[in-house]
Design brief:
Blueprint: E1 11-16, H1 29-41, E2 47-55, E3 62-66, E4 69-75, H2 84-99, E5 103-106, H3 109-117, E6 122-126, H4 130-133, H5 141-160, E7 163-166, H6 169-175, E8 182-185, H7 192-196, E9 207-211, H8 220-233, E10 238-242, H9 248-260, E11 267-271, H10 275-284, E12 287-290, H11 299-307, E13 311-314, E14 329-332, H12 337-349, H13 351-368, H14 371-385
Parallel strand pairs: 1-2, 1-5, 2-4, 5-6, 6-7, 7-8, 9-10, 9-12, 10-11, 12-13, 13-14
Antiparallel strand pairs: 3-4
Helix pairs in contact: 1-14, 2-3, 3-5, 8-12, 11-13
């Protein structure tokens, strides 16, 4: 532990992460987790929070202050010779030197390296198993090089930080052997509005919902194939897809499949949704489906559970640690549209079953993922890292 870097009644915590520029829209799971966590941490007056978002989606530098929370947006170039991963290490390190935090909680591997270079006590929350994700991104030289660099920085961070937060048992299994720091097992948080969302709209009995980035790792093609099979038995089935297009090439392939398969009338790409729209999407869905090739602790599953919806998901990564198959939804083999279709049909045809599963899912979500409980655990990790006793309240 190090001595506090400044004299104050508040613990100064820097959180370099991916964070929404428009706070009612979150792009990807890390943004959602970070936004939810910050909302929970803001309830504690003894914390001074500095969120750092350094990314090419920021057009110009900006600082937004709101009480004990300051969000620092750092612009990065879209065209560059030096990879932004490398450039951002130095940008974040410079800003941390100005903030002088007592603790840094990095949510990206190269941000953790920036904190370590600055000599700050560093906690690294691991959101993905990068070497496994890389298997889905091998179509272009750029993707292969990007994930090779990402894996290198991630492994260096895991090996060097003094504290690590695993958001799933899957993370522990994949990284525990290479880490020297202390591990904390803390779930991802979901905010209270998701638990209330099911009261805000009526369920549409034939609707399947997907939430997530449109990219290869999510394997939406398998879900589309499953919907084509479901349609033979549930003719009025509708699939609503919410999320930002990350891979335009992959999105084009999906659109082509939809058109060629005659699914244009039942598959709807909604784009990136704001928070109110996303809550309504979950509330109106009968089933939430995720056909990913790789996941850690996906927010789409956690959010669906909080709203009280059964899920049909692939048996990959940390999903078995979230979904009790046959109790809160079904887990199916990856890249198996027939099994996914069979389980979706079971739920669409049996309202009592899906409502029973949804209620059980919501009970578990309330116990594990409430933002108040997750923020409490993070706060105590920060205090420990700063050499302070656990908080009493």
């Amino acid at each position: 532990m190090t001595e506090r870097s400044h004299s104050t009644d508040r613990l100064r915590v820097a959180i370099p992460t991916l964070y929404p520029h428009e706070t009612d829209k979150t792009v990807g799971g890390v943004q959602a987790v970070s936004y939810n966590l910050v909302r929970g941490l803001r309830r504690y007056p003894d914390l001074e929070l500095h969120v750092i978002h350094c990314h090419s989606d920021i057009a110009e530098n900006a600082t937004v202050e709101d009480g004990t929370l300051t969000v620092h947006y750092l612009a990065m170039p879209r065209r560059r010779l030096i990879p932004n991963m490398t450039r951002s290490i130095y940008r974040v390190q410079e800003l941390l030197a100005q903030i002088r935090p007592d603790v840094v909680n990095a949510h990206i591997g190269y941000y953790a390296l920036a904190a370590l270079r600055g000599g700050f006590p560093t906690v690294y929350t691991i959101h993905g198993v990068v070497q496994e994700e890389a298997r889905a991104y091998r179509r272009t030289l750029f993707d292969r090089l990007r994930y090779r660099l990402y894996t290198y920085y991630n492994h260096r961070a895991v090996q060097r930080v003094s504290a690590l937060i695993a958001i799933s048992d899957y993370v522990l299994d994949k990284y525990q052997h290479m880490a020297h720091g202390r591990w904390y097992r803390i779930d991802n948080p979901v905010t209270d509005d998701f638990f209330l969302a099911s009261r805000a709209a009526d369920e549409v009995s034939d609707r399947v919902f997907f939430a997530g980035s449109i990219t290869e790792v999510k394997d939406l093609h398998t879900l589309l194939e499953a919907i084509a099979l479901v349609r033979h038995r549930v003719p009025l089935v509708q699939l609503h897809v919410a999320g930002r297009v990350v891979s335009q090439r992959y999105f084009g392939e999906l659109q082509q499949y939809v058109e060629q398969s005659g699914l244009s009338s039942c598959v709807h790409f909604l784009g990136l949704r704001n928070r109110a729209e996303l809550l309504r999407d979950y509330a109106e869905a009968a089933v939430v489906a995720l056909s990913s090739q790789q996941e850690n602790a996906p927010m789409a599953v956690i959010e669906a559970m909080a709203v009280g919806k059964p899920v049909v998901c692939t048996r990959v990564g940390g999903i078995p640690g979230l979904v009790a198959s046959g109790e809160t939804g079904y887990i199916v083999a990856p890249r198996d549209p027939q099994e996914m279709a069979d389980r979706i049909v079971v739920l669409l045809r049996d309202q009592a079953l899906r409502h029973r599963m949804g209620r059980r899912a919501q009970e578990i979500a309330l116990q594990r993922f409430s933002v108040a409980e997750v923020a409490r655990q993070y706060r105590n990790v920060y205090r420990e890292m700063a050499g302070l006793p656990p908080a009493q309240g």
